[in-house]
Amino acid sequence: MPFIILDLFGVITIGSYKETCxxxxxxxQLDYDAVYQVVYHKYFTxxxxxxxxxxxxxxxxxxxxxxxxxxxxxxxxxxxxxKLNKPITKLAQDWKNKNAxxxxxxxxxxxxxxxxxxxxxxxxxFPVIINSYNxxxxxxxxxxxxxxxxxxxxxPAETLLIDDQDYNFVNAxxxxxxxxxxxxxxxxxxxxxxxxxKF
Length: 199
Fold this sequence. Notes:
Layout: E1 3-6, E2 13-14, H1 17-28, H2 32-48, H3 54-64, H4 71-80, E3 83-84, H5 86-97, E4 101-106, H6 110-119, E5 129-131, H7 132-135, H8 142-152, E6 159-163, H9 170-174, E7 178-181, H10 185-196
């Protein structure tokens, strides 16, 4: 049975840390990659591993980048970019109809994760939604991938990881999981259909 591990923020919903960092970079004429390194990799990742609160992650990022916005204001801006990527919910139903098992696997702070799952009633479309925070594992880690394979009883050969960040693929590929970098609903539909045809 095909097993699809689907990202939440950036695929099922669009408007994530990419857009927030693009906004900061444009407003303050800063290098996007440098902003992303601070906001996402340094502080957000620490918050998703329970090393600091979500509020601290926004406040510390705003302070380090010398933004005029407070941490709370930056969070509000960040949340404003998020919206449901409706075509993905339809695609997921199509995949289920082809006997694929789908698990949503996210990396986020509990507050943002719970807000978005509740706001868009995502459990209507996806019965299993897991936040890496609750596992105490980095989403991109080999251990996280092995946990999902073991919990749901699948082999790497029948597993596909879909994400909008290719750095999440490194360890998955090492253990034989196929990957698709999300770019658009049409692209994803085409590439997943090709993958499912192998089963």
